[in-house]
Amino acid sequence: MSSEASAPGAPEEISFDQVFRDEISAINERRAKSQRAVLPADADDFGLTTENGLIGLALSGGGLRSAAFCLGVLQGMQTMGFIRHIDYLSTVSGGGYLGSTLTIGLSDNPDVFPFGTPSAAKETPIVKHLRDNSRYLLQNGFPSAVTALVVYARGLACNALVVLPILLLMSALLLALNANTVELDATRALFIDWSAFLGKGHLRVSLAVLILVLVGLALYAGLVSVISYSSKRWRAWGANVAGIALSVAAVVIILDIHAALIAFWFRYVGLGGEGGPASTIARLQSFFVWLSPIAALILPYINGIARKATSGDAGGWSDLAQRLLSRVLLLVVASLLPVILWIAIMQMTFWGTAVLTGSASYTVSHAPRFIQWVLGADPSGQLLDYNRWRAAISYALLAGLLFATWPFLNVNANSLHQLYRDRLGSAFFVRAVANARDAGQADSFALSTIETQNTPYPLINAALNVPGSSFANRRGRNADFFFFSPRYIGSEASGYARTPDMEDAMKGLSLGTATAVSGAAAAPNMGMASVRPLSLTIALLNVRLGYWIRHPRHVAHRKRIFKGYPGPVFLLSEAFSKTGIRLTKQDVTSSETGFVFLTDGGHIDNLGIYGLLRRRCKIIFAVDGEADPAMSFPSLVQLERLARIDLNVTIDLPWQQISRFAIDKSAKRASGPHVAIGKVTFASLVTGEPPETGVIVYIKSSMSGDECDYIGAYAAKHRLFPHERTSDQLFSEEQFEVYRALGEHVATGFVRGDDTVVLAEDTDAVDELKKAIPDIEI
After folding, report:
1. Which residue, 16, 82, 23, 165, is CA-closest to 647?
2. N or C: which end of the chain has fewer CB within 10 A?
3. Rounded distance, CA 324 to CA 441, Å?
4. Is 600 strand, coil or helix?
5. How many angstroms separate the CA atoms of 553 and 771, rounded?
6. Is 240 helix (H, G, I), strand (E, B) or coil?
7. What is the mean pLDDT of residues 617-624?
8. Can you tell me the distance from the alpha carbon of 770 to that of 778, in angstroms, rounded to the nearest whole number?
9. How confident is the model at residue 757 (pLDDT cuts 50, 70, 90)?
């Protein structure tokens, strides 16, 4: 934890109303510049209402697949001058890749659309750059793979420095309880030899404790029966005492079992340990160690496996078999690292335990030479001057030396976040360069330097992970909606901070950092997609794209911290699903954590629509490029539920027709539908008044049968197109182009009125849309 002190200056509690007001100020500047009607911003008549006439564009998650599809959609929509009508650009993950490129381009020059249009004579330098970098994760082939491997290995080394001292301390405790084979053969518990009472033998302490627990529970049951009408306070006190007693009993039993296992190890392995049980133990150790790389390969697919493992029972025997197999696979992966760590503790304890070889002669010849040296053994492993505490103290001192490295470890720097961010930056954080054929890099483009009078106001969405917070996770979501923008950063659970203040507090925070955080698809904690039993395995195998950022409310309250980066304690909170454990509403104290943990915005809203609903946008354009081969619109269904619970907003969107025509080949039409237009109903602002309404235009990545030849040819060869796996981030030229071309096809057919559009029963939605954007020919 970090020590803190208040910085000079008055603390500031920033409300969402203030955030929204400043966003409207930025939007008004752009509207005035483009001669659009400005919005009221006076304190007396300003508020969250659809009467503001705000128009938002949401680009969904989906990695490179979504980025390419969104590129085509924006090119097609721009044939009607679409971007100048947009007030908010809300992006998630893959949609944010392209959204960042668009924001940088328009911020530099609002008069030049950075992606061009289908009718342009040639591609813009930026689009050419995107094509050239469609294999951005391994852009340079083998050298890029080697660099990535080195960064990954560096993270594993950092994790080892975090975990090893803890393992040493646990081994030191076991050695302090039973320092040699004589004590292991006795009936000992908590430094006391109980042989006189229980006799000699292993697990006798455990048996005695179990008997005491059963007797205690029987007495407790009888006592409760006699005084069953006691006050709630006394009932709670009794339950707490019983819980503490059971916990103590469990600890004693676990320690006794460990002692029995070490004794078993010595009995069957001995000092040389060839063949028989010795070989079995060695093979068991090797099996779990060599299994860990296989688990690392499985982890990218773990969400799909988890979904199958927890799916319903609507299928037949085949579905049941797949569900059971998925659960077994999850169990194996989840138990892998805990078992390896447990074996490591047992191995170190085994090495440190002295073996009695004579009347008073002890040896540690079974330990590696370094351990023998630490314990003061001669070259043959004999302990000439034996002290039962030396092994425990030596292990504790070694642990202390490793703990001394903790203040210098930055878990952000040693995760995969920086590598991912840098690779993204080379592909997407670019800007047009005057009189140059190629795009230039904009890697350090700061959020606060975005020219909001030139570009739609960007909202880059992330998930704030709060599984350990009793305040923010009362409903079990594990996450809150977090956003980055040019003026503010934060969420309701964490509070808000001004973006320049956060950039001062977090060196290296930029538009690129925010985009990489928004696309941090793999992490130990993943919001609503978390699989808690896997957290320890994922964390220690360094599959970590998430990012620790300064607590926004801390920054707003001018709180200083001793160390400006997150240390090993935060890695452990990821590993044990305790991120956000001290996150409390409007309560900044010296004991509250100085950092909060962020991952992919798709871990709570993969569409980027929630923030637009919260701001009561009158019209929302949503581009959905997520992987949805079943065409069941899972992110939309989840959004509808969250919006109804949190905002009292309902969405009436007839998406089922898009799904039906996309799945049923015999029912396909030559022109759509790819687009559904629905109605959004917001709660009334005044009791007794009718609710407010808005429009949602939902553009779905789907096939209709009239696409160009090369799209059709690619679809014929690739069964999942256009919903190939998001884990595929190494697109070929063909793959990038077919997704881009599909997006262009869908968008141009929509804005020109050539394709079928699915409408909600209330066709007023179309009238509202045409009022806002007269160029659209629906």
Report:
1. 16
2. N
3. 49
4. strand
5. 40
6. helix
7. 95
8. 8
9. confident
pLDDT tens, residue by residue, 297-341: 666 666 666 666 566 665 667 767 777 777 777 777 777 888 888
The strand pair at 362-363 and 382-383 is best described as antiparallel
Residue 564 parent element (H or E): none
Give the residue extent of every domain in the chain.
55-87+617-778, 285-345
CA of 569: how far to CAs of 67, 259, 575, 587, in Å? 35, 29, 10, 21
260 pLDDT higher than 70: yes
Look up residue 447 and give its DSSP letter: G
pLDDT band at 69 (very low <50, low <70, confident <90, very high): very high
- DSSP-assigned letter for residue 274: -
Distance CA 340, CA 361 (A): 33
Give me the amino acid identity at 306.
Answer: A
Residue 323 to residue 346: CA distance in whole angstroms: 34
Dihedral of CA atoms 327, 330, 331, 335 in degrees, nearest 10, equals 180
* Per-residue b or e along 605-619, where b marks 16 or more CB atoms closer than 10 Å to that residue's CB: bbbbbbbbbbbbbbb
Encoded tokens for 99: 């959204």
User: Cα-flanking dihedrals φ and ψ of residue 49, to 5°?
Assistant: -155, 150
Cβ atoms within 10 Å, residue 149? 10
The C-alpha angle with vertex 142 and arms to 136 and 144, in degrees rounded to 5, equals 45
- Compute and round to an integer the Cα radius of gyration of the chain: 31
Q: CA 147, CA 27: separation in Å to the nearest integer?
A: 42
Spatial CA neighbour of 518 closest among 444, 593, 420: 420
Q: Are the beta carbons of 87 and 457 closer than 8 angstroms?
A: yes
DSSP helix/strand/coil, 320: helix
Residue in 179, 180, 178 with CA at minimum distance from that of residue 188: 178
Query: Please, which residues bridge with residue 463 across strands?
Result: 481, 599
Tell me 353's DSSP state.
S
Instruction: State both tokens at 42.
Output: 């006076």
Q: Is 512 exposed, middle or buried (0-12, 13-18, 19+ CB in 10 A)?
A: buried
Comparing 414 with 119, the larger pLDDT belongs to 414
Q: Which of 368-372, 607-611, 676-680 has the highest mean pLDDT?
A: 607-611
Contact 737, 710 (CB under 8 A): yes
Which of 436-440, 470-474, 684-688, 738-742 holds the top average pLDDT?
A: 738-742
CB burial class (10 A; 0-12, 13-18, 19+) of residue 562?
exposed
Cβ burial, residue 677 (10 Å; 0-12/13-18/19+): buried
Using the predicted structure, report yes or no on whether residue 436 has a pLDDT greater than 70.
no
DSSP 465-503: E-TT-TTTTTTS--EEEEEE-SSEEEETTTEEEEHHHHH
Using CA atoms of 180, 184, 189, 190 in order, give the dihedral in degrees to the nearest 10. Answer: 10
